[in-house]
Amino acid sequence: MKTLKDVISLKFKTSESEGVIFHGEGQQGDYITLELKKAKLVLNLNLGSNQLGSIYGHTSVMTGSLLDDHHWHSIIIERHGRNINLTLDRHMQHFRTNGEFDYLDLDYEITFGGMPFSGKPSSNSRKNFKGCMESINYNGNNITDLAKRKKLEPSNVGNLSFSCVEPHTVPVFFNATSYLEVPGRPSQDLFSVSFLFRTWNPNGLLVFGNFADDLGNVEIDINEGKVSVHINVTQVKKNRIDISS
């Protein structure tokens, strides 16, 4: 396929911060890869380079953040020659590709949800996408519908299910005044707590608990963007331990 214009759109949701959403490459050195890196969306595109290095076509654009929140996100990529509009959740970013070429020359297949192992260093270091996609549309072709009806030939559908499994974790949202109080475990000499959290606020109390028999307390908080643990013990000389990270 040698195209001057491309329109690629899809929706995805995932709890993974890394993964290839789609990839295509050609023998002329052209490629297009859309992937998640550190929960951000990265589009890598090359419409052609030459061996002399005077034409260097690699272009990389990053957008979004915290996209591993298991909510639906929509992507639209519109290309006309070297002009690209990249839209993530209705936020559009316009840019021009490097190099001097206008056509995207892909003479192998395009893969969604990962990339085939080509022996190149770039292929084995990238993770496949793990999550859900819907409404995949590539230049007017409804890929999800064609795949479900097995109308994509030749195609290699690896371990797909046409349903979206919800995660077992249940998030809890706290506003500035809410809290969750749970019963402690008396007569145990072990205190253990683990949790995942996400916030825009640089300060806030995460966990607080009193030890039984007035032996002290433990406090975990965010202070200026750092997580701090404070352990107060009333019956020893060095009665306070502070850990910050």
From TrEMBL:
Domain Laminin G: 1-164
Name of protein: CNTP2 protein
InterPro entries referenced in this protein's UniProt entry, alphabetically: ConA-like_dom_sf (IPR013320), Laminin_G (IPR001791), Neurexin-related_CASP (IPR050372)
Classification via PANTHER family: CONTACTIN-ASSOCIATED PROTEIN-LIKE 2, PIKACHURIN-LIKE PROTEIN
Xref: CDD domains: LamG
Protein species of origin: Herpetotheres cachinnans (Laughing falcon)
The gene coding this protein: Cntnap2_1
UniProt xrefs under Gene3D superfamilies: 2.60.120.200
